[in-house]
Amino acid sequence: MKKALLATAIAALTMSNAWAADGATTELRVTGKLLVGGCTATVNGGNALDFGSHLISDLSSTAVNDIATKDTDLVIECPSATKVGWTLTDNKADSNAEIWITGIIKGKGVSFGVGKTAGNVNIGAYAVSIDSVKAASAKAVNGEDTFDADYIVSAAASTGLWAKATTETSFRNQEGTQDIITVGAKGTLEPAAYNNATYPLKVSLAVDNTTKLAISDDTDISGSATITLRYI
């Protein structure tokens, strides 16, 4: 369920015995909560990460060029404590060069495209992962309580099988198999309800070798991904 939360429980549907007499009664209770405002997601410092300008002459003509890794934070806030995670979908998947990023990440499923050259060559790719160093001291807020947290991840196709998120694991981003990222109480692999959580992210960019790119004019690097909240 996306961007709306209607939690409903049906309980207490019981009879005293299988052959209750005429006129016997029981109670059916339906409870739930409608939220006026759902959870929101904000990228600190704005939604764009600028990796700057780079001279073609400074880049390798034979090897993949790791441009840089930048840090940013995704902040999720909810009006009431909610089990909510998020996914990433690549809006430029057809421009993914499928190259190695930082030497450990490769492939369309775990990296994102950054556009094409004038000659229709895929420029490169970037990866998004949790910052493991900052994750070691992660906290989340539930009402007036703050708890130590771990960032956990589950494939959308197999929700319920959670693992700890690390810097070495880039998030899967293909429709239907995206990773859902959320928080759990530290030392557990169970999603926790929270009002506020900050996800420290590392975004690593690489571009292909200049021989393959064959760039003769200034070329923009332009990646785009959609963050979608997923209620758990």
UniProtKB/TrEMBL annotation:
<dbReference type="Pfam" id="PF06551">
    <property type="entry name" value="DUF1120"/>
</dbReference>
<protein>
    <recommendedName>
        <fullName>DUF1120 domain-containing protein</fullName>
    </recommendedName>
</protein>
<feature type="signal peptide">
    <location>
        <begin position="1"/>
        <end position="20"/>
    </location>
</feature>
<keyword id="KW-0732">Signal</keyword>
<dbReference type="InterPro" id="IPR010546">
    <property type="entry name" value="DUF1120"/>
</dbReference>
